[in-house]
Amino acid sequence: MKEVIGSYHMFLPRTWLKWCIYILYPVFVVGSLHVLYHYMQYFPMVCVCLGSGMIVAAEMMLDTYVFLGIGARDTNRLEYLKTSAKGMSLLKKALIMDGARRFFSTLLILLGVYFVMHLDGGIKDAFPLIKYVLCAEIVFALMELGFIVTRRSTNVWINLIVTYILVGIADVISITVVQCEVQAWMLVTALAAGSGLAVVGRRQIGKRAEESYYDERTESVIENDEIWE
Fold first, then answer.
1. pLDDT digits (tens, 9 = 90+) for 218-227
2. I need a labelling partner for 223 at 20 to 30 A (CA). Which of 9, 35, 59, 72 fits?
3. 141: which DSSP letter?
4. Taken in order 206, 210, 216, 219, is the CA torsion positive or negative?
5. Of 57, 56, 52, 61, whose CA–CA distance to 33 is shortest?
6. Hey, how many other C-beta atoms are within 10 angstroms of the C-beta on 195?
């Protein structure tokens, strides 16, 4: 586990980025919704909706500093990995840890929203805990879907457009979830969808990385042949 976490941190070279990912952004989301609910009297449905959208926006924006464009054909993000025989292994472990961290961060943040709504005389029967869990799974799946697009392009504007669209979808779905009767099959389906999208996205990046290694070896062989000629 220590090695997997270390591999992930290789892509988080700046201390402020680690602080944002692990502490600042989760505390900001939960703290903001605590204020909105207890002091500004926002409805629980609105708070859940805002929480889901804030998570999507924060994670998509933070990813621009971590893996944006890592699977693009014209990227140079893989160059330093080619200098080590363990480069591919490091990348795979980092991507796995990134997905696991995001899933648990999303789940913990929305569970935090659930608990702060029940502090200081909050509405005890606002929404069952299971609805927050389903929202977390769906939000995770939406982000993984977005990363399949954004990590294959180095264009930041594409990232912004995808983020804008996904935030809107997350808001609508969150409102739908809190209004419906959650059943076990919904939890299983959402979790399977998120896991499947995570696997697809990481395989695409792995395939691109392997192609990059192959392209470099081919260019090296061609250059050597030209020298000997």
1. 444 334 444 4
2. 72
3. H
4. negative
5. 52
6. 16
